[in-house]
Amino acid sequence: MNRCSRVSDTAVCGRALTLLATMFPLSEKSAVNLRGHYNLSNITTFADHEDASGSAVADFKLYTKFWGLQKYLSRAYDVEDYAVWEKVYESMQQIMEAFEGTPVASTREADGNEEKRAVKFLTDPQLFRLQLGDGFFRRHILVQFLILLRHLRIVQKPEEAFDSSKSHTESAVNRRVLSLLDSIGPSGKTFGTGMTRAFYWEKHWIAWKANGCKPFDRAPVPFEASEQRRKRKPIGSDVGKPKKASKILSSHEDDDNGKPWALPSEEERKEDLKSWQNSAPTVELIQSQLTDDKDEEDPSLKRKNMKPYVWKTLRVLQRKNFLLVRRIAEERFDLDAILTAGKSENEN
């Protein structure tokens, strides 16, 4: 990791960090940064005086505020002071106004492949106007804004860190930053939703660090004592012993011959089938139910408008009179019409 540059070898460093993250357990405290120290060695240098020969003279004030804001973005604890927050808030508002007034270019090349760039940007004043319209550059700056606002929400209460007016609240600034992220294509809204979800996960990660980085490993399940475990018969212990005849599951356990495993007779099976067939509703019962429903005012409570009841009734009618199958399609599943047609056919 020390030999590779995170600017020129970004992909290699990222794969190495991913490999290390999978090798160590979840409760490993390496690189957790318990005290929350910031990397103060990465200092952003830029032109602090205006060059008359340059072409970015008109935007020089915005240029100095833009790159001067990096000092506070890398030292978020300095912004906890309300006087410093007022200065940072003013610079953030001007930068977001510049983003809103500059058309943004897509972060994808014309051939459809994503651009592969380093996360280090030049601070030349002549490139500043082009950088404002670069979606890749703009997305990195807005993410820095979200990280700063997230830090202020964690360390202090909103009424202590911000002014009470609506324009100075953290939530208003946060919504504006997310709106700018959504406008950067492609998949702007997906990226903004992903950042919100990442901050939600970070909330639990910070709580884990505050509680002393308790291990995630679960305690092993206690092994049951040997006397409490179910005893198994040794293999071959039942060899040579006569096996008991298994009973056939039947409701007719006591027949005339006194054999509990005997199968039911033909007459008994016919009686069971007959009793099962008689359990289905009759046509007369269905007609009486439909007649009773005529007094119901609510159509949804009538049985003929209930799909399960119609389906079961049609099954019963088909079993009673198979000729009614033709009437079902003709009468469009109208039970009253089907019953009337079936009654007339029976009379004929």
TrEMBL record:
Q: Which GO terms describe its cellular component?
A: THO complex part of transcription export complex
Q: Which positions, given as ranges, span the membrane?
A: none
Q: Name one Pfam family in it.
A: efThoc1
An example GO BP is: mRNA export from nucleus
Region Disordered: what ranges?
224-278
Q: Which InterPro entries does its entry note?
A: THO_THOC1
| Name of the molecule in the record | THO complex subunit 1
Q: Which organism is it from?
A: Rhodosorus marinus
